[in-house]
Write a structure and sequence with these properties.
about 475 residues, mainly alpha, Four Helix Bundle (Hemerythrin (Met), subunit A), 2 strands
């Protein structure tokens, strides 16, 4: 292996770094990988998806991914050594790649999470049977990282699939119909979509978009593991050193040789010192222990607490029997007890005042943090009329339909924020506000706010004016549903 041509910086890498290196490889050689992928795997997958009915075509494409992975592996393994293969080279090598070693990858090995990690063992090292199994066991160290890679790739495919299916579902629905409402769209209904041709193509596109990155990440982890086991960085350093010596001028080379010769002669002329000591092992041990390194003695002075002597040892018997000492000790104990009680009382008062002050500051901060505007709508209580329901209905009767619904919606937001204490942010959207009210509010409040949000969105964004009876009901129910405090 010509490590000098390797277009990588050889150094120890963690598993996460190796995965990132694989993604970077696909980005660096995106053109060759994309072209080879487009002329080999993509046409075969599309033909299978078109010809095989229902979802079995998608399953077959997913099952053949280990076969498709050999194409980007062929491109990346040669591009790393400076030989970027073109489409012609890939097509010439395609029959050999897709006809050998098919049993294990497409049967028992298909469900293995290590398939992208051990694929280079089969394709690049050409090992089979027992030797392949032993090589795979030697390469496997951080198995959890490989499993996380497989799970992460599956999650990426799933998320991409949901996004594409949602996009298809949105375009298939009639946006001008009154039955379509973005708030009523549920991703669960995607499971009920028929396995149509569009759905099958979306499945196949999700698989084919993620798979090259999955393969490249596994290949980079394989390279990192081989570099760790075989010491590629050390080998490359010695190769570069040998090349420098070969390219060294003759004069410098002769000087280095003369210096090495002098060192060898000096080493050969040196004689070992004569052996001293007794042949008896015990005497030798005693002699060694008598050395200053083993027999040194030191004196250290340390300070330690010495408890006071008892009354019988330090005072005369007359003093001990008089009882004056016991009274002094009792007085000290009482003084200590009173001091401890006073300290505890003071600490309790300080802690209580601190907690009370912090609670008051927190309430003041929350009151100050209440937004004055939400989505550009003024939600300050002083900006609203005394009877907003009646004022809104008067606006409706005068033909100002948008102003009527705007007043109702602003009033609802102001009541939710200032009366019911619901923390609605300034940057919240209608959907965010509705979800928050449904989660923390009472059911009647949430039901009313849901109907009001739908009417407001229809009028403000879709320019569809709701019926007068519906608006009259919203005006009448404003105070009963949102008037009282929680």
């Amino acid at each position: 292996m010509e490590l000098e041509k390797l277009a990588l910086r050889l150094r120890p890498r963690r598993a996460s770094e190796a995965m990132g290196l694989g993604v970077r490889l696909v980005q660096s050689y995106f053109g060759p990988v994309a072209r080879s992928w487009a002329v080999t795997a993509v046409p075969v997958a599309l033909v299978i998806a078109l010809l095989v009915p229902n979802g079995w075509g998608v399953v077959l494409v997913w099952w053949l991914l280990p076969l498709f992975d050999r194409v980007p592996l062929f491109v990346l393994s040669r591009a790393l050594f400076g030989e970027v293969p073109g489409v012609g080279a890939v097509l010439r090598a395609l029959p050999r790649m897709w006809t050998r070693a098919l049993v294990l990858p497409l049967t028992f090995g298909r469900l293995s999470p290590f398939r992208c990690f051990i694929l280079p063992v089969t394709e690049l090292e050409g090992l089979r049977g027992r030797r392949r199994a032993e090589r795979c066991m030697a390469l496997r160290q951080d198995q959890g990282a490989v499993v996380r890679l497989a799970i992460g790739s599956a999650v990426q495919v799933f998320c991409l699939l949901l996004g594409l299916l949602a996009l298809v579902a949105v375009f298939e629905k009639d946006l001008g119909s009154e039955k379509f409402d973005l708030r009523s769209f549920d991703p669960v209904e995607l499971a009920a979509l028929p396995i149509s041709l569009t759905t099958r193509l979306v499945w196949v596109a999700s698989l084919l978009l993620v798979e090259p990155f999955h393969l490249a990440a596994g290949f980079a982890m394989y390279l990192s593991r081989r570099q760790e086991l075989e010491g590629w960085d050390i080998e490359l350093t010695f190769r570069l050193l040998a090349r420098r010596i070969r390219e060294m001028p003759l004069g410098k080379l002769s000087s280095v040789g003369a210096l090495l010769l002098c060192c060898l002669l000096g080493t050969a002329s040196a004689q070992a010192p004569p052996r001293q000591g007794n042949d008896d092992p015990q005497a030798a041990i005693v002699q060694v222990l008598e050395h200053p390194d083993f027999g040194t003695k030191e004196k250290k002075h340390n300070l330690r607490f010495v408890p006071p002597k008892s009354c019988s040892q330090s005072l005369p018997k007359s003093c001990c029997m008089s009882g004056g000492g016991a009274g002094g000790v009792d007085g000290v104990r009482v003084l200590i007890g009173v001091s401890v009680v006073l300290v505890l009382v003071i600490l309790t008062i300080v802690i209580f005042r601190g907690v009370s002050g912090r609670t008051a500051r927190t309430r003041a901060e929350r009151a100050a943090a209440k937004p004055a505007e939400v989505m550009g709508l003024d939600v300050r209580p002083e900006s609203l009329p005394d009877r907003p329901g009646e004022a809104a209905w008067k606006l409706w009767e005068s033909g100002q339909h948008a102003a009527c619904l705007s007043l109702l919606y602003r009033t609802s937001l102001a009541r939710l924020i200032h009366r019911h204490g619901i923390e609605i942010g300034r940057s919240f959207t209608e959907s965010d506000c509705l979800r928050l009210v449904e989660r923390v509010g009472k059911p009647p409040m949430a039901e009313y706010f849901d109907r009001l949000t739908g009417a407001w969105q229809s009028c403000a964004y879709a320019h569809r004016v709701p019926g007068a009876e519906q608006v009259r009901q919203l005006c009448d129910e404003l105070e009963p549903r949102l008037g009282a405090e929680r």
